[in-house]
């Protein structure tokens, strides 16, 4: 079965999943290899597929930006209250923003090592995709921050981190200062 999904916008263009992401020329030119490899890695997991499929509905747009100056590997700012409140309105298009910084881990080398099992940049970026898209998945259900203390958030994170090969990787308030901020 071929899935062609268009919910995630990278370099301003939708990513086509087939089921692995197929990148456009513009995406290849204007995004980091680690960002793209991270997406492919995350999209290959069961929970990655689940979230991508859920957000593939016409009512959602997820704009993914790279920012080398961001002080975390990723963040997913909470949308406005009107967007959260219209979660149940399927006719209304809801837009979300995810910011990834594929250079964050490179700069962190030699400094305090992150408490993570992920080694390569692609592995680390797959965790950043998973972490931030999980927040978007909750926003899309109309659930505002904080998310970290929620049992369902932590259960999904642990399952997804295990699928990525990092069963001990945490995503909580203590972790977010180092890796991701929301
Ligand atoms: Zn978080």
Question: What's the gist of this structure?
Answer:
Helix content is 41%, strand content 15%. It is α/β, with parallel strands linked by helices.
Q: What are the defining features of this structure?
A:
alpha/beta; two-stranded antiparallel sheet; 182 residues
Question: What do you see in this structure?
Answer:
The chain has 182 residues and is of the alpha/beta class. The chain contains eight helices and eight strands; from the N terminus they run E-E-E-E-H-H-H-E-E-H-E-H-H-H-H-E. The strands form two sheets. The protein has a six-stranded mixed β-sheet with strand order 2-1-5-7-6-8, covered by helices on one side. Helix 2 (33-43) crosses helix 6 and helix 3 (46-55) packs across helix 6 (121-140). The longest helix has 20 residues, at 121-140. Bound molecules: zinc ion.
């Amino acid at each position: 079965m071929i899935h062609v999904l268009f919910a995630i916008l990278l370099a301003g263009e939708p990513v086509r999943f087939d089921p692995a992401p197929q990148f456009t020329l513009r995406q290849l030119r204007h995004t980091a290899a680690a960002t793209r490899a991270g997406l492919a890695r995350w999209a290959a997991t069961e929970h990655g597929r689940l979230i991508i499929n859920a957000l593939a509905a016409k009512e959602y747009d997820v704009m993914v930006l790279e920012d080398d100056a961001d002080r975390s590997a990723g963040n997913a700012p909470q949308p406005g209250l009107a967007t959260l409140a219209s979660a149940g309105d399927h006719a209304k298009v809801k837009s979300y923003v995810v910011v990834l910084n594929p250079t964050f881990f490179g700069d962190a080398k030699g400094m305090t090592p992150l408490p993570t099992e992920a080694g390569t940049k692609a592995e680390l970026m797959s965790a950043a995709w998973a972490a931030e898209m999980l927040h978007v998945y909750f926003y899309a259900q109309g659930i505002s921050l904080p998310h970290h203390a929620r049992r369902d958030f932590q259960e999904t994170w642990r399952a997804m981190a295990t699928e990525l090969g990092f069963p001990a990787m945490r995503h909580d308030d203590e972790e977010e200062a180092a890796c991701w901020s929301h």
